[in-house]
TrEMBL record:
Organism: Quillaja saponaria (Soap bark tree)
Name used for this protein in its record: cysteine--tRNA ligase
Enzyme class: ligase
Signal peptide positions (record): none
Residue ranges of every copy of the tRNA synthetases class I catalytic domain listed in the record: 41-337
């Protein structure tokens, strides 16, 4: 009993000496799609994390589904770094594919030129959404040797066969096929984007290498000129940058089957010691509760949304639901996200304005801060609470306080602002622009959605002021009500009237 008590005591003492980051590491859990349960995160190499995330097939501008995947794993990347891990983050581009070839033929363009153009457009979109640049962004076209070498390994291990210049994976040779998705073998539709080939030994066998066709890009190989199948690219590139043993493999939930299922089969067939610790998948973005996708034609591109809404508003919308849950797109949701971002930045601006006279003095005295950040989701909730507390403190700040109370309040506001900024940084919501610049950008977007320019609003404010002076209160109320319906809120501050964005009426949103 005494030994047991001593063990508990030493455990407590050890925990007391742990840093906040170390404690967060101990408590960090991830949902593993392979085991279908939450697991304590333990990297294969202490202090280091290898993460591979499937990127886009580059044949068009990216839509909100692509944005959600990118933002979800960007937050994971940021949080792992926040915990002190050295992260090698790999996110690929599929730049050789049937869809790319078909689109290039429609446009009369070289397939690799077209895919390169849309890879670059994707990078621009990711920068707008404040996604950090991954450690590596490999393209299929630049890794043909690695892909061919991997296929040779699979053939040598008798898990693939060549037919007329094509190479197929033999699913019968991999008894664990289906363990990630839970799919039965007979449900597989060959896992590629073409009709079932009668030359296959099993209809579920899928292509590792496709023989060249006229007018398509191709590369020389032992089986003749051709190009890779869809799935082999990720097995080859993840192994090249992270080896066959790494920590996290991520992507959209639609990739679990067949893409990731086939990756598991290929990689394990090539290397028996292949092991990925955690498979993670984000949920769909839906439109009227139907999966948003290019094939269904019900998608909105990132550009279409950011033309009307600030990229931070879109990012806020994308993280407004648990990353594994479906996220339904509505204009009202985007408006709410935009309103939330404005509230955050207005509060930060108010804090900065109130504290600016005291910051130099505080810094010169060597103020220390206490870091108490929890995991990302609780941290986001704490961020909101902290902002409300900041607003409450700012209201108190305006009152007459004794010097000691004022100093205490100043210190409290400084701490709140620093912690809020750190949480916003993890969430990717902290802009490199100044608070005032972001607020102006949000106002400009709201004016665009309202079909107004700022001079229109200022003119209406003057008209309303005059109406109030003339005691034409019905007219002044109508001006205010009409603007509010369009998403422009008027606020009387002393003798001055200012405006800020607000959520428009449902009637205006439906127009």
């Amino acid at each position: 009993m005494q030994k047991h008590r001593k063990g508990i005591q030493s455990g407590r003492e050890k925990r007391n000496f742990l840093t906040v980051a170390e404690m967060a590491k101990e408590e960090f859990r991830v949902y593993n799609s392979m085991t279908q349960q939450k697991e304590v995160f333990e990297p294969k190499v202490p202090g280091k994390v290898g993460m591979y995330v499937c990127g886009v097939t580059a044949y068009d501008l990216s839509h909100l589904g692509h944005a959600r995947a990118a933002v979800s794993f960007d937050i994971l990347y940021r949080y792992l770094q926040h915990l002190g891990y050295e992260v090698t983050y790999v996110r690929n581009f599929t730049d050789v594919d049937d869809k790319i070839i078909n689109r290039a033929n429609e446009l009369g363009e070289n397939p690799l030129t077209l895919s390169s153009r849309f890879c670059q457009e994707y990078i621009v979109d990711m920068d707008d959404l404040q996604c950090l640049i991954p450690t590596h962004q490999p393209r299929v076209s630049e890794h043909m040797e690695q892909i061919k070498d991997l296929i040779i390994q699979i053939i040598n291990n008798e898990c693939a066969y060549a037919v007329d210049g094509d190479v197929f994976f033999a699913v019968d040779k991999f008894p664990n096929y289906g363990r990630l998705s839970g799919q039965k073998l007979e449900n597989n539709r060959a896992g590629e984007r073409v009709a079932v080939d009668l030359r296959k030994r099993n209809p579920a066998d899928f292509a590792l290498w496709k023989a060249a066709k006229p007018g398509e890009p191709s590369w020389d190989s032992l089986w003749g000129p051709g190009r890779p199948g869809w799935h082999i690219e990720c097995s080859a590139m993840s192994a090249h940058y992270l080896t066959f043993k790494f920590d996290i493999h991520g992507g959209g939930i639609d990739l679990i089957f067949p893409h990731h299922e086939n990756e598991v089969a290929q990689s394990c067939a090539a290397c028996q010691e292949c092991n990925i610790s955690y498979w993670m998948h984000n949920g769909h973005v839906t439109n009227n509760n139907e999966k948003m996708s290019k094939s269904l034609g019900n998608f909105f591109t990132i550009r279409q949304v950011t033309e009307r809404y600030h990229p931070l508003s879109l990012r806020h919308f994308l993280i407004s639901a648990h990353y594994r849950s479906p996220l339904n797109y509505t204009v009202l949701q985007l408006e709410s996200a935009s309103d939330a971002v404005y509230y955050i930045y207005q509060t930060l601006q108010d804090c900065q304005d109130a504290l600016s006279p005291f910051l130099e003095e505080s810094e010169s005295r060597g103020t220390e801060r206490s870091s108490k950040l929890a995991r990302v989701t609780p941290a986001a909730l704490e961020c909101i609470k902290a902002l409300k507390l900041a607003n409450s403190s700012l209201n108190m700040f305006k009152k007459k306080l004794q010097k000691q109370q004022q100093l205490s309040l100043i210190q409290s506001l400084i701490e709140i602002e620093k912690e809020v900024k750190e949480v916003l940084n993890i969430l990717g919501l902290l802009s490199s622009s100044s608070y005032s610049e972001v607020l102006q950008q949000l106002k400009d977007k709201s004016l665009k959605r309202a079909g107004l320019v700022e001079d229109d609003v200022l003119h209406l404010i003057e008209e309303r002021t005059l109406a109030r002076l003339n005691k034409e209160f019905a007219k002044s109320d109508n001006i205010r009500t009409d603007l509010t319906a369009k998403g422009i809120a008027l606020m009387d501050v002393g003798k001055e009237t200012i405006w800020r964005p607000c959520i428009p009426s449902e009637e205006h949103l439906s127009q």
